[in-house]
């Protein structure tokens, strides 16, 4: 039975990478999977009752590490009266004054008051840059609530400005959206209410999404046609044929150079996503994690399905696309387990209660639909993992060069996909195949230092041994 729905693993801050999440899921199924990752970080565990822990290790793309949000200081010319106060604040903050953050805070607040006297635009880089320094001082003085309140105030101001017609010049909107998403990500580090965090993510993501689609009519038309599938991929019909996972990971989307190293396809036009595409996909991954923390696997799956497609079209780093699709496979497995749990509950209800014929027929129809959806999820998860494994076999240097790659996400995606296929085969009680795949994933995880996957794979192997002992007469081929 269900011991815990999922466990999200903490990401480690590194540059040039998207956040990584690695949850565990436990369902009533005999041998459940415990895996999900959405970025190239090495992670650590998190219990569902301490869901917010993972937020404290938020990472970001490119040079935009969390420190980038935290210590952001705009390099702009301030009015003389403001600059004079800021110099005093920086002096108090320096090591020559033994980092007197309390005094520095006083001067930063004074500088902000001076900006208000000068009627400075409250969403300008200068004004918000001072606010970020104030928030930093709050954090250094262990005044986290004050810092979080300031971040939220900035978010509301950005949101209002971007929603007010004519408030922000068209050529400045992308820059302001980038700042908005950065503050959003930073605010989530201190968020204590998962529902509030989820609502904020959704509102600001939709704002950025509207901007992207308004800048690219082709993108808008493309995703309008796919909206129905993305928002509700399961309607009781087999969906494996409608979602072609191979289209995400193939030679058209993932480019390799002559030495078989992955490269970005410079021929693609990703201007509609600039300059905030890294922040945008970081925030989408956070939304997926929040959906998981509230047990909303359907929304998490829908979000990730769209995210993988958008990453391909936005020409994100190839390794991140591979890993994002591996995570999609993990979400599909979680969804399959959810359907299986509902099947189990309905079967128990039929066994333990007396129902009339009409109610029983309704239950039977529901069970048939749940079985179709479950089977479709398993099929789609297998396709997700399988296309990554097939791609790596066709481009074998991806595996052998794993240690040389600055971005470990490709090797981790391959290892995670092999592991995922092993778990699916274990679930289906194809024990010999499961054992081979799990051992293969362990070998690759050892090569790349993927410690968390090692722990999970060894745990699944222990289950496999128990399965062998409990069912000695069942074929293991």
UniProtKB/TrEMBL annotation:
Keywords: Membrane, Transmembrane, Transmembrane helix. The chain crosses the membrane at residues 54-73. GO terms for biological process: mitochondrial protein quality control. Coiled coil: none annotated. It comes from the Eukaryota. GO terms for cellular component: i-AAA complex. PANTHER family: MITOCHONDRIAL INNER MEMBRANE I-AAA PROTEASE SUPERCOMPLEX SUBUNIT MGR3-RELATED (PTHR28142:SF1). This is LADA_0G09868g1_1.
